[in-house]
Design brief:
Chains: A mainly alpha, B alpha+beta, C mainly alpha, D alpha/beta
Strand order of the largest sheet of chain D: 6-7-8-3-9-10-12-11
Largest sheet of chain D: 8 strands, mixed
Distance between the termini of chain D: 35 Å
CATH superfamily of the largest domain in chain B: Dipeptide-binding Protein, Domain 3
Number of domains of chain B: 3
CATH class of the largest domain in chain B: Alpha Beta
Number of strands of chain D: 12
Radius of gyration of chain D: 21 Å
Strand order of the largest sheet of chain B: 14-18-13-17-15-16
Strand content of chain D: 25-35%
Number of strands of chain B: 21
Structural class of chain D: alpha/beta
Radius of gyration of chain B: 24 Å
Oligomer: heterotetramer
CATH architecture of the largest domain in chain B: Roll
CATH superfamily of the domain at 42-62 and 78-243 in chain D: P-loop containing nucleotide triphosphate hydrolases
Largest sheet of chain B: 6 strands, mixed
Distance between the termini of chain B: 57 Å
Strand content of chain B: 15-25%
Number of helices of chain B: 19
Chain lengths: 308, 586, 383, 315
């Protein structure tokens, strides 16, 4: 995983340094040659890209120095910027994930148990709507109706609120973020359960006298949860990119807005740090899911080269 | 020596996104009398503000915030009658006083009772320290060059801030001296007027920073400073004290009882939310959460009759920058007739309908006044209309004629041009699509026109990376200068040959000479009619050459809650709405 | 205590070879002819598929959308980029519905001065349909007015736009179908590319396994770990927002899912006996992959593709929202949705039609993929 | 006798096949086949028995080079076939050795018709003419007792026995000189096992085949084999003529295996007592080897053990 991260950092660094328009200071007309020289030296831009990379890596590894923001938050260490933004976004994303999983599982199970009934059809319909309509439309509608028309929630995020008030002001964005993951989990679990219900061991469970519902709950879900881990990984990254839109609409000072504005600024050290951060999150998710696999599913998979 | 740009330049997009007006101040310079009784909270919103450091802030919204909680030497304040503004000292007492006949040595007296929010007294040392920091040769702040030389050129300042790490120019050579704790001496490179000096020290980047806090925010090598950012410290000293700031979310201000002109302030509190989505802002207004909202083109139709609607004159002309040096298109853009063809092929009336704006064939925006003394708008002067083309500059036959001439002159039978636009601006996108459709219809099949949406960062960096060595970065691009609303002549600098921040690679010695005469000669500085004559000449020339193709202006349109009583009856150029001086009547 | 075998032990005396006799040695082999007709794999799937009513409906819906995407833009006299500044932001109007209240070309205008309603320069004769919600703001009497927006805008009576018009007065009917066409092209091409790349990549990784697999999977891990939005944004920044680069942006990370799935399939089947059998016959690697292992993945691939198509449309609209949409004046569902979102409060109908279309497409493709999965893999039927 | 006939057609010497797997940094090595040596004479049927997981399938698959041997040599008709895999070697192997698989369901590609399954080997061997292939497939189908009409069918339409016959047809259509039959009947109903074995026997005679017959079922092996090898945990522990093994099993594992053979007579079945083999006693590394007790009958043992076996054999 460390090697993966290292390669990502390397590629990210190179790509971002070689982007078009990345002529940092080279032609700023308001500066004298001496000033440009000082600035370029300050950000090590006077050195070849590989050397810049080594300097960056050394700073990152030895001092935890992610560099300094060059245009959005001039002079502020990038890590300080992230430190302020990450908790906000993570709060949304993790709460959203924590809502989505149980809700998705619940509705998936209900749909599977009540297969081919009106409940199932209604769920399926809702699932498709939630998956198909982009989150920015949902966010706008939620904001318009729930917050503006019915006054149930604040229209924008209230930074001064804490505890329950904070959750209250974040509920709409979290909800907007959760629609698609809930629908995905539901769809996945329903399909997975429907398959498991037909399997032999479920038949056995039913011959033992369990009703189909009991059998599904006691035996089916457990088996369906294992592959669910595979859905969670992309889901989490999905939520993160969704927050990009949601944060703008609800004026939440999180990573989503930062990502776009850092690219647009352009603020390369910040962009790079965001790229690394998200890669790290996604790698950690994979790792957690991997470990969870070991816990949930004791079977060991051995893959190796045994054919020519 | 390279000359410094005189004007604050903000991209058109930034303007469009900017939510708020400019600073403002008190109608009554005489403290003690007429104590306002009305207190209350004003709720407003701004775009993104990522730093409060006055030397680095580049966002339009930053100006509003910084001017609310910092202090400078001079400032615009609403006048007593509520129909205009006065330009007077904020920290300074009275106008700067010339100390020699050449108009190069000035003395400014400041108040002796000004305080920081922690009670530290504000003295000339603070002023000099702040100016030294903004021009620090290693800190390299964004605004250094403008402080060193804009409306006036401070003696030795340019050399000082541009010395890099050579350590060859000591601070003592810079023409800023302390006479006593409350008297500042400024020495300029050349002749300056009282107004020049005042204007120079009214910009937000000459506002004060608190020395101990600033020092604490330095990085170890003293090449960067976090003052006024997420992590750094902050010390207010302006009309309001910044009591709470959640970056990207909200600003809370409380009235500063120690502010020198505290009596002018009627508000107890101001809350600014950071909102970037226009739908969200409108909903916030309609729900009563904020007291004002600015309306985009799509929203205007529903509110055109609303009595809360307050229009304001447009502060910049949206134009198409022409890269005349571009060699990819057979130098077509370098051909005057070709450019004129584009100029006359533009149906500005239709475009105005599209963007709910005003067709513009001129360079100087409608909000710019010809003279601070009279307050007459430049555009309203009959001389400024005499040379404008009829029918809003739309004449298909003339356009075709110019186009044919251009083709003949260039010896080509087909011209191909590409325009870039920013995907994030819905109005320029719409107009680009409109031109993409109509220009070829007017000019015929020999004209091929492409449009290309790019990210806003790329659009601006392409425009700015234009150089003589690299002329082909773009062909046509959207632009618009947001220049000083009080000084017409100065605004023409953006088209001078030496103005480096420009988007249009245009050089003309004759024109440059006109500008220098208007802005730097003693006559230009003192004889307003003479200066205006030069301005007409410059504008006529620019229109005739079609170096930039003006398309439209968008008036500001703002819904303002009727519980807010503004200090002026309406928006005033250079002063804005004056939120700080508003009263809340519930 | 186990007893050791000894030939002399009487207990094992009967273990002589004569005991090992096949009792049916003389049975002859008789195989009857089959009564039924031979049914191939695809035919079998087709039969099963045709029995699913939902799938057939989904297929028909997709076919209709596809047909409309082809002919829809040419069904009226407006081109997708025909602009008319007199027809800006018109609501939908369908002549047959004129009396019904919806699709009648009306719109509610808020907060109108009551004293100005008689002004025919602003409100042409007969355009006011209904007045409501009288109120006084700042001492001015206001009301909400429902107007025949076509008359209000001075549009001739015989002009109508079924889906209304946009900010440039362009016919949204034409643009919606044109957009559907572009979006479908983007979706199909990107999905085909994804599948192809994923198929080849996954086959190689899965078939050869070992260190080749490890390196290849590590590469996918790296690509996948990068945040999509950053990668795609950088990609489009670099290559511009042409059709091709949007498609490529949808490919750059999305092929990995297919590759992983194919690899898993290969892991499952490459050591199955029939593959080994083919190897012992001397079947080459490429034939083994393409002829023996891959056909097993055809069901999952098709299913996956069907789901990937609407999600590509979805991603495309997300890109359009963050300003990386297809180059104007071209239209796509994503562009229409993101333009619609900007005026959702004022002209909701401009969002309605593209949103409906993308939902219908999503539902149809989802149902179709379910049907196909059942058809190709009868064990998952009903799921 | 020619020089060729003096040597076995297949010679396996000291053959090992180890599998290693890495998980969380730890490497586990499974010695599926560990130093096995034997030979198969042309025209004979060599039976290989052992319980599940003893490595007999691996041994078969290593011989036909589905797996690369870890060490040791394999020679076929005197030519070494255990070296680096080349195109020529693969061709040589696949031309001469064919394999029949255990699972009649898994060993036929469900997406291919019988014609395609059987004809594939011909196609590879350059029989490009469609009708010629069809003719030979139909001939082969009839030889295994199926109908020519079955060629157009898919495997799932057939019963287990029929499928196994298709598998045999697939192996034989390419006219190999040796067949490795990997438990060809163990997945079948006892009632059809005989059919298939009969078929194999008669085809063996008809096509002059050498057969390596792998099974866990001693009764079947006994019936078809000329010689029998017994495998235990990757090692060959006993090797002798078929009759010899049954009459004079020496190695305790062989005895255990024999005792596990079910009796068709219910009375004797009831009284049958299983013998359990507890595994070899600890002996010094390298002391164990295949040692000939009498000519043609070898047992895996130490020198001391050999003497004991000899005494037992002579008794």
């Amino acid at each position: 995983m460390l090697i993966t991260l290292f390669i990502i950092v390397t590629i990210g660094f190179m790509v971002i340094r070689l982007m078009p328009g990345n002529t940092m200071y080279a032609d700023d007309p308001d500066m004298s040659a001496a000033q440009i020289e000082v600035l370029r030296a300050k950000y090590h831009l006077d050195k070849p890209v590989p050397v810049q990379y080594v300097i960056f890596l050394r700073g990152l590894l030895l001092e935890g120095d992610w560099g300094t923001s060059i245009s959005l938050y001039v002079g502020v260490p990038v890590w300080d910027v992230l430190k302020a933004k990450i908790p906000v976004s993570m709060y949304n994303n993790i709460v959203s994930l924590m809502i989505s999983l149980p809700l998705g599982i619940l509705s998936g199970v209900i749909a599977a148990i009540r297969k081919n009934t009106i409940v199932d059809y209604a769920t399926s319909f809702a699932v498709v709507i939630f998956i198909s309509v982009p989150s920015f439309i949902f966010a706008t509608l939620l904001q318009y109706f729930a917050a503006f028309k019915w006054r149930l929630f604040p229209i924008i995020y209230d930074a001064s609120a804490t505890g329950a008030g904070k959750l209250h002001s974040l509920l709409l964005p979290i909800l907007a973020l959760s629609f698609s993951p809930i629908a995905r989990v539901t769809r996945y679990l329903r399909a997975e359960l429907a398959e498991t219900i037909n399997s032999d061991f479920m038949l056995l469970a039913r011959t033992k006298g369990l009703t189909e519902t009991q059998a599904t709950l006691r035996h089916g879900i457990r088996n369906s949860l294992v592959p669910l881990a595979n859905v969670v990984i992309p889901m989490f990254t999905h939520i993160m990119s969704g927050s990009l839109v949601i944060e703008r609409i609800f004026s939440i000072p999180g990573m989503g807005g930062l990502m776009v504005s850092s690219i647009n600024a352009p603020d390369y050290p910040l962009t790079l740090a965001i790229l690394i951060f998200y890669s790290l999150v996604s790698l950690v998710t994979v790792l957690v899911v991997d470990l969870a696999y070991g816990v949930i599913d004791p079977r060991i998979r051995i893959g190796g080269r045994n054919i020519e | 020596m390279r000359k410094r740009p005189l004007l604050a330049i903000v991209l058109l997009i930034a303007c469009a996104l900017s939510a708020c007006g400019t600073p403002a101040v008190e109608p009554d310079p005489d403290p003690g009398s007429d104590k306002p009784e009305v207190y209350g909270t004003l709720y407003n919103y701004v775009g993104t503000v990522s730093t409060l450091n006055p030397f680095e802030s580049s966002e339009t919204a930053g100006t509003t915030i910084i001017e609310a909680c910092t202090i400078g030497l001079y400032e615009y304040f609403p006048n007593k009658t509520g129909d205009g503004f006065v330009f007077e000292g904020q920290l300074a007492i009275g106008d700067p006083v010339a100390k020699n006949d050449e108009g190069t040595l000035w003395e400014i007296k400041i108040h002796d009772n000004a305080k920081w929010e922690n009670g530290d007294p504000i003295t000339v040392d603070d002023v000099i320290y702040s100016l030294k920091q903004v021009m620090d040769p290693l800190l390299l702040t964004r605004r250094a060059s403008q402080v060193a030389s804009e409306y006036i050129t401070i003696k030795g300042a340019v050399d000082y801030c541009q010395q890099g790490n050579s350590n060859s120019v000591p601070w003592e050579t810079v023409g800023l001296k302390k006479i006593d704790d409350y008297t500042l001496q400024v020495e300029t490179e050349s002749f300056a007027t009282v107004n020049d000096v005042k204007t120079q020290f009214s910009t937000k980047y000459t506002h004060l920073v608190h020395e101990p806090t600033w020092e604490a925010c330095f990085s170890a090598d003293r090449t960067s400073n976090t003052y006024g950012t997420i992590t750094g410290g902050w010390m207010s000293c302006g009309p309001f004290i910044l009591t709470d700031w959640t970056e990207g979310s909200q600003f809370v201000f409380e009235r500063n009882p120690d502010y020198i002109r505290a009596d002018d302030i009627s508000l107890e509190k101001m809350v600014f939310y950071v909102i970037t989505d226009s739908n969200t802002a409108l909903e916030m207004f309609l729900a009563g959460n904020i007291d004002t909202v600015s309306l985009g083109a799509a929203a205007i139709e529903q509110y055109e009759d609303d009595p809360r609607l307050h229009p304001s004159r447009p502060g910049s002309v949206t134009s198409i920058c022409v890269n005349i040096g571009n060699t990819k298109n057979n130098n077509a853009l370098g051909n005057k007739n070709f450019r004129k063809a584009l100029f006359y092929a533009t149906d500005r009336e239709a475009i105005a309908k599209l963007v709910k704006g005003v067709p513009a064939t001129w360079i100087v925006a409608s909000a710019i006044i010809s003279s601070v003394d009279t307050g007459v708008f430049f555009r309203d002067l009959p001389e400024a209309q005499a040379y404008l083309p009829p029918n809003n500059g739309y004449d298909p036959d003339l356009a075709r004629q110019y186009f044919q001439t251009a083709l003949d002159e260039l010896g080509i039978d087909k011209a191909e041009v590409t325009m870039i636009y920013s995907e994030s601006s819905s109005t320029t996108k719409a107009v680009s699509e409109f031109l993409h459709k109509t220009w070829p219809e007017v000019l015929g099949p020999q004209f091929e026109f492409k449009i290309e949406g790019v990210a806003s960062s790329l659009a601006s960096s392409l425009r700015k990376s234009w150089t003589a060595e690299n002329p082909n970065t773009y062909e046509l691009a959207w632009g618009g200068w947001s220049v000083s609303l009080t000084d017409v002549a100065n605004g023409f600098k953006v088209y001078t040959g030496w103005f480096n921040n420009k988007n249009e690679p245009h050089y003309n010695d004759w024109y440059d000479d006109l500008w220098e005469k208007a802005n730097q000669s003693e006559r230009g500085k003192t004889d307003n009619d003479y200066r205006l004559d030069l301005c007409f000449e410059m504008e006529e020339y620019l229109i005739d050459e079609a170096l930039t193709i003006p398309i439209y202006e968008t008036p500001g349109r703002r819904l303002i809650n009727d519980r807010i009583k503004l200090p002026l009856d309406d928006y005033k150029p250079a002063f804005g709405w004056g939120w700080m001086y508003a009263k809340v009547v519930d | 205590m186990s007893k050791v075998y000894a030939p002399d032990d009487p207990q094992f005396a009967d273990l002589g070879p004569e005991r090992f006799v096949l009792t049916q040695l003389d049975d002859s082999i008789l195989d009857a002819k089959f009564e039924t007709k031979p049914i191939g794999f695809f035919k079998d799937a087709a039969i099963r598929f045709s029995k699913s009513r939902v799938s057939i409906i989904a297929l028909i819906v997709i076919a209709i959308v596809l047909a409309m995407a082809i002919v829809g833009p040419n069904m009226n006299e407006y081109g997708y980029n025909d602009q008319n500044m007199d027809y800006i932001n018109l609501p939908p109007k369908i002549p047959a519905f004129a009396k019904s209240g919806i699709f009648a070309g009306t719109r509610v205008l808020l907060n109108r001065r009551v004293d100005a309603l008689g002004d025919t320069s602003r409100y042409p004769e007969g355009c006011i349909v209904h007045k409501s919600n009288y109120q006084v703001i700042n001492g001015v009497e206001l009301c909400d007015v429902t107007v025949d927006y076509y008359k209000y805008s001075g549009v001739d009576d015989d002009v109508y736009f079924m889906f209304g018009t946009d900010y440039l007065g362009r016919d949204l009917w034409t643009r919606v179908w044109r957009g559907a066409r572009i979006s479908l092209v983007i979706a199909f091409v990107s999905v085909i590319l994804n599948s192809t790349i994923g198929l080849i990549y996954g086959s190689i990784a899965g078939y050869y396994g070992g260190s080749i697999d490890m390196v290849m999977m590590r590469i996918t891990e790296i690509i996948n770990a990068m945040p999509t939005v950053v990668v795609v944004t950088l990609f489009i920044l670099y290559f511009g927002n042409g059709l091709l680069s949007i498609i490529m942006a949808l490919v750059v990370q999305n092929w990995i899912g297919t590759a992983r799935m194919i690899r898993a399939q290969f892991y499952r089947f490459k050591n199955s006996e029939y593959v080994l059998a083919a190897r012992t016959l001397g079947v080459g690697d490429r034939t083994l992959m393409s002829r023996h292992i891959l056909p097993n993945s055809i069901g999952p691939i098709i299913t996956r593709t069907m789901v990937a198509i609407p999600s590509a449309i979805f991603t495309e609209s997300f890109l359009a929202y963050i300003g990386l949409g297809i180059r104007a004046p071209e239209s796509s569902i994503g562009v229409l949705l993101s333009e619609g979102q900007k005026v959702l409060m004022h002209y909701p109908e401009q969002t309605l039609f593209p949103a409906l279309l993308i939902s219908v497409l999503m539902i149809a493709f989802n149902m179709l993929s379910n049907g196909l999965r059942d058809a190709f893999d009868p064990t998952q039927r009903g799921a | 006798m020619s020089a060729e006939e003096l040597r076995p057609i297949l010679e396996v010497e000291n053959l090992s096949k180890h599998f290693s797997s890495k998980r969380r940094g730890r490497t586990t090595v499974v010695k599926a086949v560990d130093g096995v040596s034997f030979g198969i004479w042309k025209g004979e049927t060599f039976g290989l028995v052992g319980e599940s997981g003893c490595g007999k399938t691996t041994l078969g698959r290593t011989i036909i080079r589905l797996y690369a041997p870890t060490s040791g040599t394999i020679r076929f008709s005197g030519r070494e076939v255990s070296g680096k895999m080349t195109g020529a070697l693969r061709k040589y192997l696949t031309d001469n050795i064919a394999m029949i698989f255990q699972d009649p369901i898994a060993s036929l590609n469900p997406r291919m018709t019988v014609q395609e399954i059987i004809g594939e080997g011909l196609k590879i061997r350059g029989v490009t003419d469609e009708s010629e292939r069809r003719r030979r497939v139909e001939y082969m189908l009839e030889r295994v007792g199926l109908q020519a009409e079955h060629a157009t069918r898919y495997p799932h339409e057939f019963s287990g026995g029929q499928r196994q016959r298709i598998g045999i047809a697939r192996a034989l259509v390419v006219e190999p000189s040796m067949i490795i039959a990997d438990e060809p009947v163990s997945a079948l109903d006892v009632s059809v096992q005989a059919q298939v074995i009969n078929l194999l026997n008669s085809l063996k005679r008809e096509f002059h085949l050498t057969v390596m017959f792998i099974a866990h079922n001693l009764s079947v092996v006994k019936y078809v084999s000329d010689r029998v090898g017994v495998m235990y945990y990757g090692k060959l522990v006993e090797l002798a003529e078929s009759d010899e093994i049954y009459h004079h099993p020496l190695h305790p594992y062989t005895k255990a295996l024999l005792s596990a053979v079910p009796q068709p007579d219910p009375h004797s079945e009831k009284s049958r007592r299983r013998i359990f083999y507890e595994g070899p006693q600890a002996v010094p590394e390298g002391a164990l080897a295949m040692r000939e007790v009498i000519p043609g009958h070898s047992v895996y043992c130490t020198e001391a053990g050999l003497a004991a076996y000899r005494r037992e054999r002579d008794a």
